Amino acid sequence: MSDSGGDALTLEIVREFDATPEKLFELFGSEEHLVHWWTPREQGHYFTTPYCKVDFRKGGRWRMCLLSPTGSEYWQGGSYTLLDPPSRLEFTFQWDEKEGQPDNEMQVSIRFDGLPGGRTRMTFRQWPFLEASQRDGHNGSWTAVFDALKSYVTAN
Description:
This protein is an alpha+beta fold and 156 residues long. The chain has one domain: START domain (Alpha-D-Glucose-1,6-Bisphosphate, Chain A, domain 4), CATH 3.30.530.20. Helices cover 25% and strands 41% of the residues. The chain is built from 3 helices and 9 strands, in the order E-H-H-E-E-E-E-E-E-E-E-H. It has helices spanning 21-28, 31-37, 132-155, and strands at 11-17, 41-42, 45-46, 48-54, 61-67, 73-84, 88-95, 106-115, 119-127. Strands 1-9-8-7-6-5-4 form a 7-stranded antiparallel sheet. The protein has a two-stranded antiparallel ribbon with strand order 2-3. The radius of gyration is 15 Å and the shape is globular. The protein starts with 10 loop residues before the first strand and ends with a helix. The mean pLDDT is 91.
């Protein structure tokens, strides 16, 4: 997977966590952990993750169902294209069909850089988005997911 550069239809989020790169990498690869923090929000309420299957290896597939507070299901999945523990993780990301048409497949790249004191700077990139509104919607969702991850790291 190549770096997306500075394309306007690329989403980049940089966050810092009170956890080591090893710990964050582990949290991204475990069904047991993912169901607790891979949860966006809708109108102030978190989604739940009633289904999560992860084959955390290069070429392995992942699939999840996000259940909204109003009961709507959102299915997503992809495959792992690069696992370089504990510093890099790359995978494809695609929502299930919308209106009978498959959604565009996107790439995700996550870098974990260790910081002093056992902290980590995570750089998340996702691309290509078909339009800015799609990117902006994902920005809000991923921001909520990473807020949940931060809370989960603190509690565990």
